[in-house]
Design brief:
It contains 8 helices and 8 strands, in the order E-H-E-H-E-H-E-H-E-H-E-H-E-H-E-H. It has helices at 16-25, 52-68, 85-91, 99-108, 123-133, 156-172, 190-197, 204-217; strands at residues 6-11, 36-41, 74-77, 96-98, 114-118, 140-145, 178-181, 201-202. The strands form 2 sheets. It has a 4-stranded parallel beta sheet with strand order 2-1-3-4, sandwiched between helices. The protein has a 4-stranded parallel beta sheet with strand order 6-5-7-8, sandwiched between helices.
């Protein structure tokens, strides 16, 4: 396969720290003969997508980014609301992967029920609406917030403590057999949380890029 193949991973918010954290987590997919994986930031987006209004505004910007980069071979929308995913699939014939959809599909292959670690309580209704639209609510064990905004996720000690605390509730009280990190900015905590809780933890950005790499390698 030509090294010119490229996957564009779009962070729909304007937080470069989130983009950098996510980009580091994608290193395992940067194969010697694989596609180039380029992470980009929506510089005109909100600092964090924490409401439906944030998601709706970012959706328009995400579609514009895809239009401007339509020579790429695949796209990943790296926000757990998958903002603009349906419109994006209308403006390009290249595959478009949303991290929420990809993360959930990956979790379904790893366990019988999945739990989501959201950032804020206001995120949960938005997640539930999307899961219902995918017809997968019967496999959802629970969706609980850690109570930290996107900008606060850089506080490693505080964030990991909250992820552990809420993850235990989803595992022990809600019966989740797999957990999904509900924000691209949580990527760095996946392995430590999985080791701590003893159940699979899915980073949705990794899940989506894994699917994108497969699609590009197989010319799908």
């Amino acid at each position: 396969m030509s090294s010119a193949k490229q996957i564009i991973v779009i962070n729909p918010n304007s937080n470069e720290h989130v983009t950098d954290s996510m980009n580091t987590a994608l290193n395992p997919f940067r194969l010697a003969n694989g596609p180039i994986i380029k992470s980009v930031t929506n510089l005109y987006g909100p600092p964090g997508i924490e409401s439906q209004q944030d998601a709706d505004n970012a959706a328009v910007q995400v579609v514009d980014i895809i239009k401007r980069n339509n020579s790429a071979d695949a796209f990943v929308i790296a926000c757990f609301s998958d903002p603009g995913i349906f419109a994006a699939r209308e403006v390009t014939d290249r595959p478009v992967f949303g991290i929420a959809e990809s993360g959930i599909l990956t979790a379904l292959s790893l366990g019988s029920s999945f739990g989501i670690l959201a950032i804020l309580d206001t995120s949960v209704p938005r997640h539930i609406r999307y899961i219902r639209s995918l017809g997968l609510e019967k496999r959802l064990a629970g969706d609980l917030a850690i109570g930290l905004g996107v900008a606060e996720l850089s506080d490693e000690k505080k964030t990991f403590h909250r992820l552990q605390e809420v993850g235990r509730k989803l595992r022990d009280n809600s019966g989740a057999s797999v957990l999904i990190l509900g924000c691209a900015g949580m990527a760095r905590y996946r392995l430590g949380l999985q080791q701590s809780l003893g159940i699979p933890v899915v980073d949705p950005s990794q899940a989506a890029v894994s699917m994108a790499v497969s699609a590009v390698l197989l010319n799908q």
